[in-house]
Each structure stands twice: as C-alpha cells, then as structure tokens.
Automatic annotation (TrEMBL):
It comes from Leuconostoc holzapfelii. It comes from the Bacteria. Residues 347-370 are annotated as: Disordered. This is Distal tail protein N-terminal domain-containing protein. Residues 1-126 form the Distal tail protein N-terminal domain. Pfam families: Dit_N. Gene3D superfamilies: Galactose-binding domain-like. InterPro entries: Dit_N (IPR031899).
Length: 370
C-alpha cells in the first residue's frame, strides 16, 4: 500500500478508486562509493546515499465527472509540505520524507490508456532513507505509582483541543460571506429555501409549497470521502445551535435520518448527534451530511409554511461520541479571543524527606479562557 501524509496530518491513499498510482519507480536506494586503491585492492573511504526520486502515473477520479475535482483536491493536499510516504509491505511499514518535484497537468483525452479521466505523471524528491519507528522506554529511578505527571511551561491552544472538521463556522468565520462546510465537501441548501450568512449565523427561509424538503448541507450529495478528512466506520459528533419558526430539525447522514429535535423562535437550542457513516453499495465511497427542517411530527417533506425560518450557528463536527462544545477550525485563523492559556508549575514535596527528590508528587495547571 502507498500512502502520503502531508504537514497537516492528512492522509491520501495512492491505491484508491479515486486516486490510483501506477508504474511506481524509485522505491529502492542507491549509493555513491569512494575508494582508496592499492594495486588490485580497493578500500572504502566514503559511502554516500544518493537522493532518491519517486515517480508514478496517477489516475484521478473513478469517473469523468469528478476527475478535475479530484486533481484539484490532490494539488491542495500537496501544498502542505513536507510529505511523508508510507509504504506498507509484508516486511513491516516503512516511511520516507519527501518534497514535490513535479506534478504534470494535461487534459482528458491526452492519454491513450483511458480517455475519460486525467492521467498525470507525479514526481517526489526523497530527503532521507527509508525508516520505521521503534519505541523504547528509559527509566533512571525506581517507579513510584503515586508520582503524578508534572512540568512547567506556558502553552496556548484552541479552546477544548477538539478539532473541528467544519471550516468558517459562525462566530469564528474569517469571512462573513462564506458558508460553513466540511473540508473537501460543498455546502448547499435545498431549492425550496433561500440562505444567507448573518452575524447571528446561517439563516434559511422556506420558499416551497409546503410539501418539499429544505435543509442546510455541510457536505452535499455526493461527496467523495477521499477528498475529506473523514472516514467510514468511525464515530463522529455533530453539534450546533438552532432557532426558528420551524417546529424541529433533524440530522440526515446519507440515507439515514436521526431523531428530530424541537426548537423555538426566541432562544437558541443546543443539539448534538453522534453517528457513524457506513459506505453505500449504490454510491460507493461517497456520503452527504444535512441538517433538515422538520415538521411537528418529525417529517421532512410536508407540513411547512412559506416564510418559515431556520437559523443555525456554532457548527462543530468532532471525533468521538462526546459533545465538548463549539471551537473554530484551526485553519480559520481565529483571533486570540478563542484560545485557552495554560500555565503549569512544580508542586511542593508532600514530605520533607520526599524520596523522589527532586521530583514532585503534585503539580497544578491554571487555565485562562479569553
């Protein structure tokens, strides 16, 4: 298996249906050796590892309709360097760091092997030999099971340290005209509603005939999961605040609808859903995530009145099953007003004859949120 990891920790499988690398070369290693000669004998004086170069042809997209979008997403992925190639074989998993040397760009029809999708050459310059990681533990003193983790330092991080997969979420967005969406996905609203971004959040207004679905999609049908940071068979929690004249809302992940949550038009209601996406047999490798308006019975396709409104703010999609509250995506470059500041210091020894001297059994961390 070939896989690339960029500087942001994003992964791309080079052997997937949407991005497939063929005819790879440069996986080996070569040397430049220097020798001292004495008659017919040669003694090694210096050995240098030559800089390796990986080359392959990559097919982008499994069908013509998404080949350009797949190429664009891959180019964006490559812009966050350096890269690490992961090569999994029968002899363990090996890593090699690299930088982009060249990515060719032609047009559909320029390759006689497949005229329906882009097939481009791709070159990496390796910057070190292959390596794999081993873990070792070193302890210079007798273990005390009561010894706490301690330290001293000043740190800052984004709120609760939970990564938000949604960009430009209301309240922390970098551009008031940008609608929130998952990285790699496309936001959308149903044809039966208008949408706008306000200082309070996203506002939808129903324009349908009363029997048509309306929603806000943070990743519309159908999004290629390989273009995002999400995975199938992995638990996620989506949370947000809602308010409006529509009776309720519910979450729809592909063809699965979750329980409706009631709301009102005077105060914000915080709701959350935990879900796990399963790959579809009809739209393989694709998904969508929508926040649907629902009537008083929880139905999404009837019982609406023209002019009804739905407002949404503080969208948060995070790993796991715990709703930790809203935090902006790091990529939004939010101001320091959305950060926590932590300062920790050494604790005092519990007893004058503390056997772990100079180590401490207690430590304290103060957290300040601006």
């Amino acid at each position: 298996m070939f896989e690339l990891i960029n500087a942001r920790g994003e992964h791309v499988n080079l052997r997937s249906d949407s991005i497939f690398a063929s005819s790879p070369t440069g996986l080996g290693i070569s040397f430049t050796n220097s020798y001292n000669r004495y008659d017919s004998y040669f003694s090694t004086s210096k050995v240098n590892v030559n800089q390796g170069q990986f080359q392959a042809n990559i097919w982008f997209g499994d069908v013509e309709s998404n080949t350009y979008n797949t190429f664009s997403n891959f180019a964006t992925f490559l812009s966050y360097q350096p890269l690490t190639m992961v090569y999994t074989t029968g002899a363990e998993t090996w890593y090699r760091d690299a930088r982009v040397a060249a990515v060719n760009k032609s047009e559909i029809g320029g390759n006689n092997q497949d005229i329906n999708i882009l097939n481009e050459s791709f070159t990496l310059d390796f910057v070190n030999p292959w390596y794999n990681n081993k873990t070792g533990t070193y302890r210079s003193y007798t273990l005390d099971t009561g010894l706490a983790t301690f330290g001293k330092g000043f740190f800052n991080d984004l709120m609760n340290n939970q990564y938000n997969y949604i960009r430009h979420t209301s309240g922390g967005q970098t551009d008031g005209n940008v609608f929130p969406s998952i990285y790699g996905g496309i936001y959308n609203t149903a044809a039966a509603a208008t949408s706008m971004v306000t200082p309070a959040g996203i506002k939808l207004t129903y324009t349908g005939d009363g029997n048509s679905e309306w929603y806000y999609a943070i990743s519309e049908a159908y999004t290629d999961i390989m273009a995002t940071q999400l995975k199938f068979n992995t638990p996620y929690t989506l949370s947000f605040d809602v308010m409006g004249t529509v009776p309720s809302v519910l979450l729809r992940v592909s063809d699965v609808k979750y329980d409706a949550k009631t709301l009102n038009n005077t105060t914000w209601t915080h709701v959350n859903y935990t879900f796990t996406m399963v790959d579809s047999t009809t739209n393989v490798g694709k998904f969508y995530i929508r926040i649907n308006a629902a009537n008083s019975d929880g139905a999404t396709d009837s019982g609406f009145t023209k002019g009804q409104e739905l407002q949404i703010r503080h969208l948060m999609l995070q790993d796991g099953s715990v709703d930790t509250g809203w935090a902006p995506a790091p990529e939004d470059n939010t101001s320091v007003a959305y950060r926590d500041y932590m300062y920790g210091y050494w604790g005092d020894h519990q007893e004058p004859d503390q056997p772990n001297d100079p180590y401490a059994d207690e430590a304290q961390t103060d957290v300040t949120h601006l």
